Amino acid sequence: MNFSRRNFFLIGISFALLTFSFSCSSDNSSPAEKKLSADEEFSKKVSGHYSEISIKDFADGFNHARYLYPNSIPPWELYETDQILGLAENMLYHQNPDGGWAKNLDLQRKYTLTELEAIQKKNESVPPVTYKKQTSKDGSTIDNGNIFSQIKYLVQVYRQVPDSRYIDCAVRALQWILNAQHPLSGGFTGADVYAITYNDDVMSQTIRILRDISRDDKTYGVFPKKMRENAEIAYQKGIDCILKTQITITLSDGSKILTAWGQQHSHETLEPLWAREFEPPSICTSESAKIVNLLIEDQEPSEEIKKAITAACEWFDSDDVRIKGKEIIKKPHEAVVLNNHHYDFEKIMVDDKNALDLWARFYALDSSFDLVTGARKAIQGTYPPVNSPVWCDRGCKYCPSFNDLSMERRNGYAYTVRSPASTLEKYRVWKTKFGN
How far is CA 294 from CA 160, 184, 209, 237, in A? Predict the structure, then answer.
């Protein structure tokens, strides 16, 4: 059958109109439907499985995000540890405008894209933080293993999925760290008090990430050259801060010894400070062990670094500081909620001649230090003799022993540690190579 040109023309017009009509009808989705479609696409993306990346650096923050629930099991779904894009996208959308993150975020939590966009929008009003203490609970802070952990994680994600957004996010976080270094002390501030903060890995891990970014070409070569140079400068300032804040005490016989570090030190005077009401000025073993571990990693240590390492480890190893023949056990207890934590036990210290040595978290300074300024409440009890364990409860209350502390604090805070033991093992190896 023959068709005229006019018929072909009419058929073409009809087909075009039909196509246009179909296109219009298929694009006639409501905003809610479009949102649902975007959420579904996002869910597919973040549900993929890749090579697992460790999330141990986030443990403290994750635990804080979940502790309100029995056995710390939250009511929301969590990504598996090999669903790395889920965590990476959470980091992108939770990042504050200043480049940092609020602490205690559960970055393993599953969100929809719509939820993440709402979080990002809300964070636009979060005030920026530099080297001073945050003023908002949503403000950026290095506290509880924060910010350095995200940088490490995002760089590892980028090696598997080279999406430039992940490196851009990490670069903004590094700039936040550079901005957060105190111009006077060279230290970094946590969330609990405006001070050089050794607690919660603030100093040790932040200085470590600065070192690695500046020197590890294979892992961190993706960062801009100038930023890596600035990271090296910041690293050296951080090490100098550590060396300047190591504590010398005068013992009861009048002799002076160089020991270790406190949890927090003044940016201005460099002296140890009060932090929370159960954290008085003192020498802190747990945080000092982390600092020594950092210093030991230096493959070309200066004489000042060698002196700092040796003094701290000799202090850890002294009989006056080790606690021998004691163990912390969990004694069954009626289920109770204390400070929003669920417990069915209480920790007590008992005699045990076979126990490995313990260290108290805090040891007393001498009377030349200011032990009063900064206490959040009126001090109760008596500060112990120099170089003795310090047991301080809520309410700035000194107790004579571990077992005299409240059950809430005994269960909820690490008043004793064993971390110096592993540090001393590292020290013995280090000493064969660098010891005098």
Answer: 28, 22, 11, 14
